[in-house]
Amino acid sequence: MWLKAEGFGELVKAWWQSKEFRGNPSFVLEKKLQALKGDLKNAIERYLAHVSSQRALEKIKFWDSKERNGPWYEEDKSHHFIVKDEFSHLAIREEIPWRRKSRVLRLKEGNKNTEISVLNIEG
To answer: Which domain of life is it from (predicted)?
Structure first.
């Protein structure tokens, strides 16, 4: 499914061209393929998380509309609870990579700020 997505070929081409390795051709090919495999895994995880979130959101909308339109049975209530719980877990899973990226950026900026502070103190 994601192979047919618009712009996928250009994305893979950009990933391929962004990787630079030195050595004999077979070594370079191997390293580029390994790097591309990592990029593809990350892209697939993000895509699948997005699709799963969309499906869970559609289920929530269905149960919310059912709740508005008529009486609920115990089975309906349990299904609604399960779907909302599933969505919250998906949202948390989707948020984790963003937190990691944010932390890495903060640490990098912290190192720059520390260097500036040390230069000011020594200077």
So the answer is: Eukaryota
For residue 72, name the pLDDT band (cuts at 50, 70, 90): low
Q: Is 71 left (phi over 0), alpha (psi -120 to 50) or beta?
A: beta
Tally the C-alpha atoms within 13 A of residue 6's C-alpha that lie toward its C-beta. Answer: 0
Q: Where are the alpha helices (DSSP H) in the chain?
A: 8-18, 25-69, 74-122
Is the entire prediction scored with pTM above 0.85?
A: no
Distance CA 10, CA 16 (A): 10
**Is 19 within 8 Å of 32 (Cβ atoms)?**
yes
- pLDDT confidence tier of residue 26, bands split at 50, 70 and 90: very high
